[in-house]
Specification:
Number of strands: 5
Radius of gyration: 12 Å
Order of helices and strands: EEEEE
Structural class: mainly beta
Number of helices: 0
Strand content: over 45%
Length: 65
C-alpha cells in the first residue's frame, strides 16, 4: 500500500514521482484505485513538473538506493 509522500515508479511510462493523492476509475468490473503523482522526471514532457494519474497497479515503490 502506498502513502502520501511515497516515491513511486510507473512501470509503463518510466515516470518517477511523489504520491500526492488517490482516486478511482470506473471499469466494467467496478471501481479501481488510482494514484495521483507529482512527477519529477518525465521522459516525454518538456516540463519539469507534471501531475499524472494512473491505475494503482501500474506503480511500484521507488528507491534511488
Amino acid at each position: 500500500m502506498f502513502s502520501i509522500g511515497d516515491y513511486v515508479f510507473n512501470q509503463k511510462t518510466g515516470e518517477i514521482g511523489e504520491v500526492i493523492g488517490f482516486g478511482h476509475q470506473i471499469l466494467d468490473s467496478g471501481y479501481t484505485t488510482t494514484l495521483k503523482v507529482l512527477v519529477s522526471q518525465s521522459e516525454d514532457s518538456g516540463r519539469k513538473i507534471v501531475i499524472t494519474e494512473d491505475l494503482y497497479s501500474a506503480w511500484t515503490m521507488w528507491s534511488n538506493k
